[in-house]
Design brief:
about 0% helix; 8 strands; mainly beta; four-stranded antiparallel beta sheet; about 100 residues; globular; about 50% strand
Length: about 100
């Protein structure tokens, strides 16, 4: 599969526990959720000011993802709507 959509370097890619989705983080300041079977983009998580260094699925399988960024924040997102639920700030540098 080819996951076309990010416009800059890809930093991480994780497969969901059930193998149905792939979550990617990029230097284009976004994270994206993909259908693992047909490579369609299901959701774009926008809101970080700089590169997204990492994106991970919620460990319990809830429809949530977390992102970390070079802008010194981490965010929690709803994977269904793409809405940012919470921003964790106060870091002195990039979050990985």
């Amino acid at each position: 599969c080819i996951f076309a959509g990010h416009t800059r370097r890809l930093n991480t890619a994780f497969l969901s526990e059930d193998g149905q989705e792939v979550l990617t983080a990029s230097d284009d300041c976004t994270a994206r959720l993909w259908n693992a079977e047909d490579s369609t983009c299901l959701q774009v998580f926008k809101g970080h000011a700089t590169e997204v260094t990492c994106a991970v699925f919620h460990p319990s399988g809830e429809p949530r993802v977390a992102t970390a960024s070079g802008d010194g924040t981490a965010c929690l997102w709803c994977s269904c709507s793409g809405d940012r639920l919470r921003t964790f700030s106060g870091h002195r540098g990039a979050v990985h």
